[in-house]
Amino acid sequence: MVVVNTCGFIDAAKEESIAALLEAVDFAHARGARVAAVGCLVERYRAELAAELPEVDLWCGLDTATLLAALREAGGGGEGAEGHGAAVPVPRRPRPVTSYLKISDGCDRRCAYCAIPLIKGDYETVAAAEVLRSARAALAAGAKELVLVGQDTSRWAQPGWGGLERLLAELKALAPAPLWLRLLYLQPDGVDEGLLEAISRHAVPYVDVPLQHASGAVLRRMKRRGDGADHLDMLARVRAALPGVAVRSTFIAGFPGESDEEFDELLAFVREAGLAAAGVFPYDAQEGTPAATLPEQVPAVLAGARAAELGGAIDDVAGRFWQALAGRPLDVLVERGAGADGVAVGRCALQAPDIDGRTFVRGAKVRRGQVVHAVASGSVGYDVEADAGRREP
Ligand code: SF4
After folding, report:
1. DSSP conformation class of 127
2. Contact 353, 339 (CB under 8 A)
3. pLDDT, tens digit, for every residue of 224-255?
4. Candidates 110, 116, 152: which one to mutate for ligand 1, based on the most atoms within 8 Å of Cβ?
5. How far is the CA of 109 from the centre of ligand 1 (A)?
6. Domains contained in the chain, number
7. Which of 2, 41, 153, 162 is least enclosed, having the fewest CB within 10 Å?
8. Pocket test for ligand 1, best of 109, 224, 225 (most atoms within 8 A of CB)
9. Res 9: pLDDT
């Protein structure tokens, strides 16, 4: 059975999910296998999709019980197949050097443009015991880096047990210990002194904080808080607590009513904020969200042009961040061992998996999963070049 995990967040993700489903159908049916569609897009549009794509064999959405029953049937059942996704053996090659740990799901914030609460519902914490169990399994399987994710990670706490500080400390104390802990999707108002202290003690100096805009008026219309000055104040606190930190963000260009002046505010903010990376999205109205019915929708062409201009400004600023690393020592987690050209590819602690640039290390005979101590020699865009020194198993 081929399982396709779909996304229903924005139109581009919906189109990509449908293309992946069609590709999976061709691949699977040619081999006598079936296709199961899971995830958010299915959860939201199951009936419409089933009518449009009858060649997909199973529609599961977020209902893991149906998927697990189908997998048991496809795989002939077996020991430990009850109750949880991790119990279904899925061979993974090569062994992952990074593992994502979901620490919460859903969101209570209700930003005006966002469909996630409509799909996932209210914020729900994953229990500490479950996070630690998943972490132990990932580390035992060879993961060196654990990446904590959720829609609103800075809010994580378990009444009577503790908050992120304790969770990070307990994850760091596991044996074998993770090389790196990384937190993604920290909402700006959750970035307080306690969280920064916890990151500085236990996690990599990496802060992923979706800011979305810098104009206070646009942020109010988005049903979000703060403005550019608040963002800069938060970034100053982040840099004081985590010297050398890489800050990633996301922005939306062309939100309904965004004037030329408001967009210029966002551009000016980005030029001042010293970000290491950011995702930029042209506003894309999502069915059922309050922003979709706001007056003064910005034409798609203009939103796209603004997004491109903002992306260019971020490339310039971020390029300077990565260039400034030259001469600095870096630990690089190797994701592809050195080939015939003697160059290994991995990431330093300032680069998150799957979304940031990579680090190319010359002069090291290293394998995937090893850590090499290197010195940065330069950068190309978001990628870092480095020369190898000592390595660790
Ligand atoms: S905080 Fe993120 S997930 Fe929650 S509503 Fe806003 S954009 Fe959506």
Report:
1. P
2. no
3. 999 999 999 999 999 999 999 999 999 999 99
4. 116
5. 6
6. 3
7. 162
8. 109
9. 83
Residue 194 has pLDDT above 90, yes or no: yes
CA-proximal residue: ligand 1, atom 6 (nearest): 111
The rounded Å distance from CA 110 to ligand 1 centre is 6
Distance CA 218, CA 233 (A): 19
Clarify whether residues 231 and 345 are in a common domain.
no
Q: How confident is the model at residue 80 (pLDDT cuts 50, 70, 90)?
A: very low
Dist. CA 131 → ligand 1 center (Å): 22
CA–centroid distance, 187 to ligand 1, in Å, is 9
Residue 50 domain boundaries: 2-87
**pLDDT for res 42:** 93
Pocket test for ligand 1, best of 114, 123, 189, 222 (most atoms within 8 A of CB): 114
Q: Cβ(374)–Cβ(329) under 8 Å?
A: yes
Q: How far is the CA of 194 from the centre of ligand 1 (A)?
A: 22
32-78: pLDDT as tens digits: 889 999 999 999 899 999 999 999 999 998 888 888 998 888 775 54
Band (339; pLDDT cuts 50, 70, 90): confident
Question: Which of 295, 323, 351 is a domain's end point?
Answer: 323
185 CA distance to ligand 1 middle (Å) = 10
- 212: DSSP letter: B
* CATH code of the domain containing 367: 2.40.50.140
Q: Which of 113, 124, 152 to mutate to test the pocket of ligand 1 (most atoms within 8 A of CB)?
A: 152
Distance CA 379, CA 320 (A): 9
Last residue of a domain, one of 38, 63, 87: 87
Whose CA is closest to 167, among 189, 210, 134?
A: 134
Q: How far apart are CA 158 and CA 135, in angstroms?
A: 17
Rounded to the nearest 5 percent, the helix, strand and coil shares of the chain are 40, 25, 40
Which pLDDT band holds residue 5 (cuts at 50, 70, 90)?
very high
310 and 336, same domain (yes or no): no
Residue 93 in any domain: the answer is no
Instruction: Show the ligand 1 pocket: residues with CB < 6 angstroms.
Output: 107, 109-111, 114, 116-117, 151-152, 187
